[in-house]
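User: Fold this; tokens only.

Assistant: Input:
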Amino acid sequence: MSNTPNRLRLSRGLAAVRLAARGGARYATSAPRLFTAAGEQRQQLRNDLALQTAEDVAATLGTMKGVLMKIGQMASYVDDGLAPPVRRTLSTLQDSVPPMSAELAAGVIAEEFGAPPGEVFQAWDPEPIAAASIGQVHRAITRDGRAVAVKVQYPGIAETISADLGNVALLRRLLKVAAPNQDVDALIEELRTRIGEELDYHREAANQRMFAAYFDGHPTIHVPRVVDELSTARVVTSELATGARFAELLTWPQHEKDLAAETIYRFTFRSLYQAHAFNGDPHPGNFLFHRGARGRVTFLDFGLVKYFTPDELQPLVHMVRYLCVDRDPEAFRRAMEEADFLMPGAPLPTEQIVEHMALFYDTVRTPGVRTMTPGYASAVARRYFDFRNPLAAYARIPRSYVILQRINLGVFALLGDLGATGNWRAIAEEIWPFVQGPPATPMGEAEAAWLAPRPEPPPPQRSTVIIPNGAGPPRSG
């Protein structure tokens, strides 16, 4: 029995290795044809190989679920260097993946509520409407007639994720490649903590309640309410939300995409600066869009939420203020050092530090209308992983801010895909606590009216769930 976690870890690791080996073999076999081909024919061969590899990745990671599937999801929307057919193939990991059987889902309901779905609910749809890395969602009607979405955790997923996170040697190697100057053990522990929290649906329900309460009545931000009596450690039931997926939004007129992007932007940064919380999973499958509704967006999935204390948030506020508003490079450098993003006394001129970091603030450094592009999103990602830059030897990501980096790698990638145009600096000034500027858009005017009578948000719950190596499903305490 004690060898089960080790066997699972080994089998998961071997599957990842075999996936990489198949890709390598595919390219090695095709090398002679690539060598002799030229021009458009060579490019077509490369595109075909990339598409075959993407199909293999989507099929393999989609069935593996857990941490490895999350990696595939991120690859599908961050790298705009992929050919369009390859991105479309990997994008299948964003919205839906192969689901678990109806019998397994029903079994989880029976274990959590002591009765099968047909008795717990007035009506239950055995076909899921979405399937993701940790659970899948079913439509249902409650006994009192409410339409709901029921998120059911995959049986054994906690052990599967524990196996992935327990492969510390592999994670260290991967993280050393991706972040050579970081405290890798601290990054692994932060990853373990955050994903451990994501497995606890009691915590996810509490997160969703907080966001729903904070944004209650907002003109364009909608968070479905949780149905408390039908939510447990492995099931979250909430109001059923309908809307278009991200792929459909991409086909809408540009003004609709701009409005949706503004809502996502406002949600992201108002959550951070006012609610002191960040929903750390901004991939396209976690949004529903509503055409003709002035930018209304429904936000889903609150399993991976990071709460910030005032002390943790203050250095971030100082950094953006000194760089973008006060235009004080030396104060910006000191704020980076105080936040532990930069080693104190690094032998680099302040101008070089500002030049390197300014790209991350590029859309808000100066007033005016800007269009987000995939090229900008990719430039941010490349700068984030630019380890040849002299600054890389002296920069680090403190554990408290690891999840926050997904703003740069996730939200900006989404807005780039939308080609979103807006006066991001003016919108940011509405939200920045040290400016609190006037409304810059019609949505800003509606938001200001919504904010006017609002009290301070309630303090967030801060329970912590950590997955030890080989642990079973976490339960709330």
